Amino acid sequence: MSTIAAKSNIDNKVRIQVKKKKAGAGQYILGVLLGIYTLFCLLPIILVFVIAFSDEKSIVSNGFSYFPQKLSLEGFRYVFKYGSQLAVSYGATIFITVVGTLLGLLVMSLLSYGLSRRDFRLRRALSIFVMIPMLFSGGQLASYIIFTTVYHMKDSIWLLILPLMVTTMNVIILRTYIQMSIPDELMESARIDGASEYRTFFQIVLPLMKPALASVGFMMATAYWNDWQNALLYITSESKTPLQLLLVRIQRSIEFLLNNKNVTGSAMLAMQQNVPQYSCIMATVITVVGPIMIVYPFFQKYFVKGLTVGSVKG
Predict the structure, then answer these.
(1) CB 134 within 8 Å of CB 169
(2) Which residue in 116, 128, 123, 109 sits closest to 217, CA to CA?
(3) Which helix (H) or strand (E) holds 236?
(4) pLDDT, tens digit (0-9, with 9 covering 90-100), for 39-86
(5) Same domain for 274 and 157?
(6) CA pair distance 114, 90, nearest whole angstrom
């Protein structure tokens, strides 16, 4: 019996070692595949940076290359010619992003808390009301008429904040997080101790929602930062022009200058010939995406945790 038990123990050890070797080989293969995928994702970004710092003539003659013959800052110089307006647009975009994200998180977290409470009487009606915009939309023309003729908000910076402040998917994410990750016993104990719903939310629920708020807040901030269509429709004054709309106008001015064959005058012709089209476009891309790329690593751990916490209960 002892020899049989010893053989079984040896067999189990051999099986465990074989499984470990297979798992280790699988992890190496998966790591190699993920590394290749990451490289393919990084190559376009690297190319954008290289072209932004490349000389326009070398781009025209040799095409896009990771190893340019000559480096130049003409693209950034053309973008930075807008100087004060660029600073104003940066300030407007930062204001819109910060205020819109904070207000949106506050409103959606309050709404999500109400929808997560099973004893809330209007829970079903509000859930249907929140789901309707996800399935049906009045269209851009109807929104434009309502905002400009009914609300009289033409050329108001709040038109760049309010339309994106509440979205159905973010409300669902926050509501699900509350239901799956915050025990009902905490809220029930607070109610027994005499805490009101607002005090329960702000002192108990809200501090525990930090991972979900960080992940949703990052997505909201990215949406606010990249939004230019609402500004194109509603904003007319230069002091309220966000960064994205300014850069769209820069690109359109370059295209107009290059495609206009009726340009007269030696100065205009020289300007048309010296416009750094491709490097300027890539410089505008870096100007827009750069701050988001800098901020993303600080939110990455909260972003991952907010999407994974609550997926497994135990």
Answers:
(1) yes
(2) 109
(3) none
(4) 888 888 888 888 888 887 778 787 788 888 888 888 888 888 877 888
(5) yes
(6) 36
Q: Put residue 276 in one of left, alpha, beta given phi > 0 → left and psi -120 to 50 → alpha.
A: beta
- For residue 276, give every residue at least 6 positions away whose Cβ sits within 8 Å of its Cβ, in sequence order, or none: 56, 72, 74, 75, 78
171-209 per-position pLDDT tens digit: 998 998 888 888 888 888 888 888 888 888 888 888 888
CB contact at 8 A, 217 and 101: yes
pTM above 0.70, yes or no: yes
- Tokens 């905002």 sit at which residue? 147
Distance (Å, whole) CA 92 – CA 224:
11
Let me know the angle formed at the C-alpha of 307 by 314 and 99, rounded to the nearest 5 degrees.
Answer: 135
pLDDT digits (tens, 9 = 90+) for 213-230: 988 988 899 899 988 888
| End-to-end Cα distance, the chain | 41
Give 141-158 pLDDT, tens digit per residue: 888 888 888 888 888 999
In a domain, 78, yes or no: no
| Residue 283 · residue 75 · CB < 8 Å | yes
Contact 119, 272 (CB under 8 A): no
Gap between the Cα atoms of 279 and 194, Å rounded: 63
Question: Rounded to 10 degrees, what is the CA torsion of 76, 79, 80, 83?
Answer: -170
CATH number at residue 108: 1.10.3720.10
Residue 94 inside a domain? The answer is: yes
Contacts 24+ apart (CB under 8 A), 247-250: 247/79, 247/284, 247/287, 247/288, 250/78, 250/79, 250/82, 250/280, 250/284
CA distance 189 to 200: 10
Q: How many domains does the chain have?
A: 2
Cα 281 to Cα 255: distance, rounded to the nearest angstrom: 10
Q: Check pLDDT > 90 for residue 107.
A: yes
